[in-house]
From TrEMBL:
PPR repeats lie at residues 103-137, 138-172. Pfam families: PPR, PPR_3. This is Pentatricopeptide repeat-containing protein, chloroplastic.
Length: 297
């Protein structure tokens, strides 16, 4: 049987920002005590998950609205931070029942909560749902949806969302683009990762080290070491600092493809770059030495 945790004695004295106090006053006056209690907990980032759930259930039992779109969006954001994606999404149904219209910011908070919970199907469904309501997703919403797909290795869904983003004339930023490339990498589709990278300029996207790193990792997993070397060469031509992750991906790709001499050559270049080596770089180099019988390298 569920027993709510005792209230924190100092909760009532928790200092709030001026904007938070305004939200609290606006909520507590026209609605009910349960709404005011819930809002205070939502505004306190130290609130425990159990306490937040108890206050939310108490609010639901009253059958009264929490407030307007801002209050519900604040609640969804707080629930998302606590990884309570089910409860966050349930508030969308509550908003419909009490006649509160969800905004673009509301859907952004909902999709972010789904991303936190690795609920890619729900994130995509919410994206399509807001479009049906006549709301226009922005680049932040698309990025969160793509990130949800990427976390779950759903490269097909990620590419579909990216295509819809282009069709909707929303300018993709590097964050959204990298999520799509990373989804291809995690899904084992090195060919699609390279295809996305090749078309970046068409959509006015400037790849960064994360882009090249994800593409290189995809090629490495597919034992496509010549492609990795091509990515390294391209990265050198751009005003980008090559980080150790990109070097490591190159060495690992060569080692997996049994191109041991090239792996050690890249390892030497990485060391000359002055960047601190990571475990992947050293492990791949040692493995290349062992497999290639180059113990004295």
């Amino acid at each position: 049987m569920y027993r709510p945790a005792p209230r924190t004695p100092c909760l009532a004295q928790t200092p709030l920002s001026t904007s938070s106090e305004k939200v609290l006053k606006r909520t507590s006056q026209p609605y009910c005590r349960e709404a005011a209690t819930l809002m205070r907990l939502l505004l306190d980032r130290q609130t425990r998950k159990e306490e937040l759930l108890h206050a939310l259930h108490s609010m639901h039992r009253t059958g009264r609205p929490l407030g307007g779109p801002k209050e519900y969006t604040l609640a969804i954001k707080a629930l998302g931070r606590q990884s309570l994606w089910k409860e966050a999404v349930s508030l969308l149904d509550v908003m419909r029942l009490v006649g509160v219209q969800a905004s673009v910011i509301t859907f952004s908070a909902l999709i972010s909560a789904c991303r936190q919970g690795s609920q890619w199907e729900l994130a995509v469904s919410l994206l399509h749902g807001m479009i049906l309501l006549g709301l226009k997703p922005d680049v932040i919403i698309y990025s969160a949806t793509l990130s949800a797909c990427e976390r779950c290795r759903q490269w097909e869904a990620a590419l579909t969302v990216l295509h819809e983003m282009y069709q909707g004339r929303v300018c993709a930023d590097t964050i959204a683009f990298n999520a799509a490339v990373s989804a291809c990498e995690k899904g084992g589709r090195w060919d699609l990762a390279l295809s996305l990278l090749a078309g970046a300029a068409l959509h006015h996207i400037q790849p960064d080290v994360v882009t090249f790193g994800a593409a290189a990792s995809a090629c490495g997993n597919g034992q496509r070491w010549p492609e990795v070397l091509g990515l390294l060469a391209r990265a050198r031509q751009l005003p980008l600092p090559i980080d150790i992750a990109l070097w490591s991906a190159g060495v690992a790709a060569c080692e997996r493809s049994q191109a041991w001499a090239k792996a050690l050559e890249l390892f030497a270049e990485a060391k000359l770059s002055g960047l601190p080596a990571d475990a992947i770089l050293y492990t791949s180099a040692v493995s290349a030495c062992q497999e290639g019988a180059r113990w004295e390298a």
